[in-house]
Amino acid sequence: QVQLVESGGGLVQPGDSLRLSCAASGRPFSGSAMAWFRQAPGKEREFVATISWYSDYTYYAEPVRGRFTISRDNAKNTGYLQMNSLKPEDTAIYYCAAGRIGGPGVRSYNYWGQGTQVTVSS
Q1: Can you count the helices (H) and strands (E) in the chain?
Q2: Percent of the chain with pLDDT over 70
Q3: Mean residue pLDDT across the chain
Q4: Residue 77: is it exposed, middle or buried by C-beta count within 10 angstroms (0-12/13-18/19+)?
Q5: Which residues does residue 11 pair with via DSSP β-bridges, in sequence order?
Q6: Beta strand pairing status for 10-12 and 116-120?
Q7: pLDDT exceeding 90 applies to what percent of the chain?
């Protein structure tokens, strides 16, 4: 069983930066792709970014491309999401996910964290 724990969320102003972390545990995590999704109030969960096990493939949703960077440190079993130039529309609960398939689909991921709140407001 893989367990994922997110951290690093908070309240920031527009234009600020945040770095989210996702700490993973459990043997099945080895070889898995990781991703970040987000869910705003009243909206469906949406894909943000994904990264392959060897970090040789990354893919971003259009609204965050050029502002967010996904990365991972397999030695530390940790994934990251660096978020720059934050906008109010980035406000959401951010979830970390892991799975063998990867990609932008929610169903491609077997394991999910509990989420961390990011609020961007002046």
Answers
A1: 0, 11
A2: 98
A3: 94
A4: middle
A5: 119
A6: parallel
A7: 89
DSSP 33-86: EEEEEEE-TTS--EEEEEE-TTS--EEE-GGGTTTEEEEEEGGGTEEEEEE-S-
Q: pLDDT, tens digit, for every residue of 50-108? A: 999 999 999 999 999 999 999 999 999 999 999 999 999 999 999 999 998 889 999 99
- Calpha distance 91→39 (Å, rounded): 9
CA distance 73 to 78: 5
One-letter amino acid identity for 93? I
**Residue 14 contacts residue 88 (beta carbons within 8 Å):** yes
**Pairwise CA distance, residues 90 & 101, whole Å:** 26
Three-state secondary-structure class, residue 27:
helix
